[in-house]
């Protein structure tokens, strides 16, 4: 496993050290868990963006909304 250096503001680092100490864990374990959670939350987006047909559909939808060709304004959707 390779390593990466991450700069964290001192105040956050100090809080993380306290939390890690209270939990009896190492800061690197907590940071690794946070990275895993972040990746997990974005996995579906990455999957969709890896499919050219979805990217094309998203871009087409954005164009249609910008040109008001299709779709409804947000205030009409609430009705």
The number of helices is: 4
Strand tally: 0
**What form results from the Cα inertia axes?**
elongated
The portion of residues assigned to helices is: over 70%
Describe this protein's structure:
The structure is a single chain. With 79 residues, this protein is mostly helical. The longest helix is centred in the middle third of the chain and has 23 residues. The protein has one domain. The mean pLDDT is 87.
Topology readout:
Layout: H1 10-23, H2 27-49, H3 52-67, H4 74-77
Write a short abstract of this structure.
This protein has helices spanning 10-23, 27-49, 52-67, 74-77. The protein has 79 residues and is an all-alpha fold.
Highlighted features:
about 80 residues, 4 helices, about 70% helix, mainly alpha
